[in-house]
Inverse folding.
């Protein structure tokens, strides 16, 4: 539990830091005028800032701005390593929209493969009508499959006999 | 210090949300947009604009020039890589300060774990940067000596603060950020900022009581 003294000092800090409304400032100034101890705290807080600023800036010194940019520009211009590229890709994949799209694509591909396996061999031939070569599956049987683009007719010749079916 | 001076200090300090700040935020947003479009010169402008502040905050937290410089470079590289994730809900410099403070505190913690006693030695060994006090020494050697001693006392006192308190004090006293801006940078409430400032400053006031009570503002 914050004691009254701490609460008052925090209020004084708000005053010194310019974090008060006009009404709060006026009330605090009245209180400071009536309380020398609080006035001392306010004076110390106000005096602290230039001391800290001077100490830090003096110790820090100045920097070579060109050195910073040179280093930064070299790094940002460099090609990312394969691992960084992988991580970057992974991060993109983990974006919600991309992840949903990827899952939807996997489901669609799965459904397509499933439907292709469910259709029969005849349908499979119809589904792949671009076979136009002579096939030598067996030395005794010559199978020739042609496609008539307009009628979608597969022509199958076995031993010179036309065994084609009209789809 | 009289009431008038305190009022001036307060009025000067509380300049969050001013028109120049709004213009700076808008200009930064435009430079960020151009950087994202592949304009490296736009990013160079941002680096030039903020490198001293980033370095100053890093130095205030870790008190080592070379490490602070390394951190400043890493901050700008990290900011560049994460620029697409910067959504503009806060200003660019607040976001940059957040990266800086996080990296500097991480660095300070790692250092504390590995070389816990080196800080004090280094504070004594590390010479002030060339030119930092030379002018003062030439003007008044005794005054310069007192100033150096005071600066060293202040830096030692700052380094004794816990990292979060230290960062809060630096952002307030050096970078002049408002309580709300500090809360945004540190990802904490304004109440936490006030509390950290109070306890941090109280320790500093105790260490510097001789200087502050005597009204020594040299």
């Amino acid at each position: 539990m914050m004691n009254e003294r701490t609460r008052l000092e925090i209020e004084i800090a708000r005053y010194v830091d310019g974090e008060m409304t006009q009404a709060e400032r006026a009330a605090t100034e009245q209180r400071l005028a009536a309380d020398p101890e609080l006035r001392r705290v306010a004076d110390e807080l106000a005096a602290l800032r230039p001391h800290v600023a001077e100490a830090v800036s003096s110790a820090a010194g100045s920097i070579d701005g060109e050195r910073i940019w040179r280093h930064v520009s070299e790094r940002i211009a460099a090609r990312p390593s394969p691992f960084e590229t992988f991580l970057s890709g992974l991060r993109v994949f983990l974006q919600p929209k991309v992840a949903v799209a990827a899952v939807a694509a996997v489901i669609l591909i799965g459904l397509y493969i499933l439907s292709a396996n469910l259709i029969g061999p005849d349908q499979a031939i119809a589904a792949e009508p671009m076979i136009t070569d002579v096939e030598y599956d067996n030395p005794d049987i010559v199978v020739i499959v042609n496609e008539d683009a307009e009628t979608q007719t597969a022509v199958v010749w076995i031993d010179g006999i036309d065994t084609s079916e009209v789809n | 210090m009289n009431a008038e001076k305190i009022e001036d200090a307060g009025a000067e300090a509380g300049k969050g949300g001013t028109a120049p700040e709004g213009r700076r935020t808008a200009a930064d947003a435009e430079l960020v947009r151009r950087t994202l479009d592949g304009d490296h010169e736009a990013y160079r402008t941002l680096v030039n604009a903020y490198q001293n502040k980033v370095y100053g905050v890093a130095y205030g937290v870790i008190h080592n020039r070379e490490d602070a410089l390394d951190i400043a470079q890493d901050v700008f590289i990290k900011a560049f890589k994460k620029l697409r994730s910067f959504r503009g809900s806060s200003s660019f410099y607040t976001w940059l300060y957040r990266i800086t403070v996080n990296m500097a505190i991480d660095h300070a913690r790692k250092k504390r774990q590995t070389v816990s006693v080196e800080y004090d030695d280094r504070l004594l060994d590390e010479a002030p940067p060339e030119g930092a006090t030379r002018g003062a020494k030439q003007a008044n050697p005794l005054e310069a000596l007192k100033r150096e001693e005071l600066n060293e006392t202040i830096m030692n006192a700052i380094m004794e603060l816990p990292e979060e308190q230290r960062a809060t004090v630096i952002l307030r006293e050096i970078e002049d950020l408002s309580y709300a801006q500090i809360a945004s940078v540190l990802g904490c409430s304004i109440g936490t900022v006030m509390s950290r400032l109070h306890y941090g400053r109280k320790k500093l006031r105790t260490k510097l009581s001789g200087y502050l009570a005597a009204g020594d503002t040299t």
Remarks:
- The first strand of chain A starts at residue 134 and ends at 138.
- Residues 15 and 24 of chain A are 8 Å apart (CA to CA).
